């Protein structure tokens, strides 16, 4: 596996510059050769192997737009990249380039950033203007991902799961209907993902119901315990009163009639107050 950025050591920064072009030669960049060699095995091979790039010391990326290549090179230097808030497509484009040039750290970062963008608040409140504006961007994202990645790519799972959860919102866009009508991988994987999500939601609902039932049963058991404690307390109070009566009678048996009568009266008075 290639090493990861940042490319900030003196050896890298003092290495020769390589010319990088993009967008059919309309975008130009200069990059330290050691940066490309350290972080991308395919670029390393191109620049050191028996290929024209090793002679020209130039890398051409004609099928990639300038901003995407700029973000790619930015990551090689500082281990992150710039993007506008709430944008979707740039992350997918950069994912495809990172996959093409085998930069796993960048590939993972684009997935994380894309997942965060898809979890933005406007998708959780689909009736506002932000969501309406973003719907077309989301459909463009889906179309791009399924046109530029392979079956089984992680980014497809991320995008497909999002499409299932936001299908009602996405279907308001005519482009989504057109995309589904094409059939192909996306339509098939969307149906499969819908089944997976439904099973997950069923399992979550079942777990919640089981937990709720256990809570109710625990509350009922606690209620029964409190009730029993109250009953036991009442029994104790009555038993204590009975003991008082018995003690009064026992004392009367050994006292003079007058004293016993007064003691018995006092004890009975105490019993009545307790009752």
TrEMBL record:
InterPro entries with a match to the protein in the record: BTB/POZ_dom, SKP1/BTB/POZ_sf
Coiled-coil segments: none
SUPFAM superfamilies: POZ domain
TM ranges: none
UniProt domain BTB: residue ranges: 23-106
UniProt protein name: BTB domain-containing protein
């Amino acid at each position: 596996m290639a090493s990861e950025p940042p490319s900030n050591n003196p050896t890298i920064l003092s290495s020769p510059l390589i010319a990088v072009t993009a967008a059919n030669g309309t975008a130009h960049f200069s990059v330290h050769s050691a940066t490309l060699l350290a972080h991308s095995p395919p670029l390393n091979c191109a620049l050191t192997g028996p290929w024209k790039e090793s002679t020209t010391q130039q890398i051409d990326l004609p099928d990639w737009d300038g901003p995407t290549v700029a973000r790619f090179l930015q990551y090689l230097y500082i281990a992150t990249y710039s993007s506008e808030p709430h944008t979707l497509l740039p992350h997918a484009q950069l994912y495809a380039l990172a996959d093409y040039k085998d930069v796993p750290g960048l590939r993972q970062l684009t997935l994380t950033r894309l997942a965060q963008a898809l979890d933005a608040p406007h998708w959780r409140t689909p009736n506002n203007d932000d969501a309406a504006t973003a719907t077309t961007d989301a459909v463009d994202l889906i179309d791009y991902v399924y046109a530029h990645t392979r079956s089984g790519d992680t980014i497809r799972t991320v995008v497909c799961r999002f499409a299932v959860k936001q299908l009602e919102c996405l279907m308001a866009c005519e482009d989504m209907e057109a995309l589904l009508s094409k059939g192909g991988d996306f339509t098939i994987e969307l149906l499969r993902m819908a089944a997976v999500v439904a099973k997950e939601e069923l399992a979550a609902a079942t777990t919640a119901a089981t937990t709720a039932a256990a809570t109710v049963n625990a509350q009922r058991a606690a209620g029964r315990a409190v009730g029993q404690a109250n009953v036991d307390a009442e029994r104790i109070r009555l038993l204590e009163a009975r003991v008082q009566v018995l003690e009064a009678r026992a004392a009367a048996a050994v006292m003079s009639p007058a004293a016993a009568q007064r003691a018995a009266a006092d004890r009975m008075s105490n019993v009545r107050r307790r009752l």
